[in-house]
Specification:
The protein is mainly alpha-helical and 101 residues long. It has one domain. The chain is built from four helices and two strands. Helix 1 packs across helix 2 and helix 1 crosses helix 4. It is globular, with a radius of gyration of 15 Å.
Length: 101
Amino acid sequence: MPKLTNYMEFIVRQELPAVLASRPGVCQCRTCQMDIMAFALNQLPPHYVASSGGHIHTMVNIASAQLKTQVLVAVVNAINAVARHPRHKARPRPGRPAGRK
């Protein structure tokens, strides 16, 4: 049975680690990463696919430099917004999730 997927989520999830790696002062806890992804996806148009064939067709159509740039801009904007207003009080130490003492 075909699965309905927002392919844009796949692209954001794929690009996020590299952008975060270039921003070492930004919190990378799971909460912040999910907030960054949600913020970025809300700035981008959805690209839903309903089958494996559609998945491949969509990959070809949206793998343009312009779309990748659009995704990177949305991810950077999301990182900046979440860094300014994280949902946890203090930035967690490396290797520790937010909210744990």
